[in-house]
Amino acid sequence: MNTFTIDGQELSLTDIAGMNTSDVEAKFRVKLPKGLYQFEVSKAALESQPNAKNSDKTNLLITAELTVIGFINIPDTSVDKEALIGEKKFENFYLSQESAEKFKDSLGYWKGFAQLTGYANEGELDAILQGWIGTRFAGQIKHRVNPNDSDDPYVNLDRDKVQAIPAEQPAAA
């Protein structure tokens, strides 16, 4: 039987299924409006996850949780800009397992992105990921048409155009 540890407590699926959710607040993901934001890397990790297209494979990836700490320009004047502070944007960098060369190439795309955010990244990957946390940068959010649902656009960070924010510069709001 699968067990999970949450805050040091071991729980089974049966335990979790029987939990009372009355004190759990409903949360909804916010799709960031188009604009130029300031982000801080709040989490970074090397992870694996099942491949959605092939259950025999597992994806290897670097995941980054980015927290909105400010904004520079959000063209939509109907947006409550202050309400966006603290919202999260998640970025995944998939690492190829086809060959050592393709693995290094795919890792290089993350490394290039991290350098653009202002983080120098040399050494062991785990230490680099932990050191990246707290890095602040400016980045453009764009929307792309979702071919499956035109009312629900894809929200993308333009990874090639991010810029470091100097540590002494306060977040813009």
Q: What does it look like?
A:
By secondary structure, the chain is of the alpha+beta class. The chain has one domain. Helices cover 17% and strands 36% of the residues. The strands form two sheets. Strands 3, 4, 5, 6, 7 and 8 form a six-stranded antiparallel beta sheet that branches. Strands 1-2 form a two-stranded antiparallel ribbon. It is globular, with a radius of gyration of 19 Å.
Write the layout of secondary structure elements.
Layout: E1 3-6, E2 9-12, H1 13-17, E3 35-50, E4 58-73, E5 88-95, H2 100-116, H3 125-132, E6 136-144, E7 154-157, E8 163-164
Terminal Cα span = 49 Å
- Backbone shape: globular
Instruction: Encode the helix/strand succession as letters.
Output: EEHEEEHHEEE
Instruction: Give helix % range.
Output: 10-25%
Low-confidence stretches: none
Oligomer: single chain
Averaged pLDDT: 89
Tally of DSSP β-strands: 8
Sheet with most strands: 6 strands, antiparallel
Q: How would you classify the helix and strand content by structural class? A: alpha+beta
Global Rg: 19 Å
In short:
The protein has 173 residues and is an alpha+beta fold.
Task: List descriptors.
alpha+beta, 173 residues, two-stranded antiparallel ribbon, 6-stranded antiparallel beta sheet, 3 helices
